[in-house]
Design goal:
Keywords: Hydrolase, Membrane, Transmembrane, Transmembrane helix. With 266 residues, this protein is mainly α. Helix content is 66%, strand content 3%.
Length: 266
């Protein structure tokens, strides 16, 4: 279920840092208040660094436990794919870029949305989890499911991504406390997939053409070579990311929590 540590050491190191800082912040309210994100201030050019530091702090122990478990499922898997495609050094630099881009993208959109709300605060890594899930579905589609037609296997990741986006969009429209920030995280993951691997956009367009895909499936097996490339060395079995469960699990702690200094969102 979890990617081996020796294959993805950077991901586990980042997760360990998040856990360590979060535990420290839970015991030190001053550190927590310093590192959490305040969109109102960010929009006015203050507390900019909290866009990134807010990923490292959580509102309580359960919040930290859920997000850290989801990160253990998702972050090492993304490191594994990037290292496999771009090499040890470049792949891990891309992983750091992924985290930085996702944090900045989510932070700036959140700052724009809540620019007039002084009492709105945000903390946690849930938006990063959503970015990782959507990145996985777009960048490296799930392997074909036994007994399922090849055509259906080709479009399944796309449909899952669309369903997740639709669900997050509905939650945002309903003004769910965490709906918008998770939607921004999902969009960040899609943009990063297109940016790091532009061919994924072409594959999505091709697989979205149902009639063509259905016709091709009658003549030859379908599926993108990119997924097969990762499985050629036999190590893909060591690293199986259950992406389908991540969206539901992350919603467990996604609620607004009242704090003496303001409202939280993750």
């Amino acid at each position: 279920m979890f990617a081996p540590v020796h294959h993805t050491p950077l991901a586990y190191l980042i997760i360990a840092a998040i856990v360590a800082v979060s535990i420290s912040a839970l015991r030190n309210p001053r550190l927590f208040d310093t590192w959490r994100m305040h969109p109102y201030s960010i929009y006015r050019g203050r507390r900019i660094r909290s866009i990134l530091t807010s990923v490292f702090v959580h509102i309580n122990e359960m919040h930290l436990l859920i997000n850290s478990m989801l990160l253990c499922l998702a972050l090492p898997e993304v490191e594994y794919m990037l290292v496999d495609d771009f090499g040890v050094i470049n792949g891990r630099l891309l992983l750091l870029f992924f985290i930085l881009f996702a944090a900045l993208f989510v932070g700036m959109l959140t700052a724009i949305q809540y620019r007039k709300q002084r009492k709105h605060w945000s903390a946690g890594a849930s938006a990063l989890v959503m970015a990782l899930v959507l990145f996985f579905l777009i960048y490296f589609p799930v392997e074909p499911i036994a007994g399922m037609p090849a055509f259906a296997s080709d479009v399944l990741p796309l449909w899952i991504a669309l369903v997740l986006l639709a669900a997050l969009g509905i939650l945002a429209l309903l003004k769910d406390p965490a709906g918008a920030i998770h939607l921004y995280g999902a969009l960040a993951g899609i943009l990063l997939a297109f940016l790091i691997r532009p061919a994924s956009m072409t594959e999505i367009i091709r697989n979205a053409d149902f009639s063509v895909a259905s016709e091709e499936s009658n003549n030859k097996p379908t599926g993108d070579d990119h997924a097969a490339d990762h499985a050629d060395d036999g190590t893909a079995e060591e690293s199986a990311f259950p992406a389908f469960t991540a969206f539901y699990s992350v919603r467990v702690m996604d609620r607004q929590t009242v704090h003496p200094l303001g409202d939280f969102q993750d």
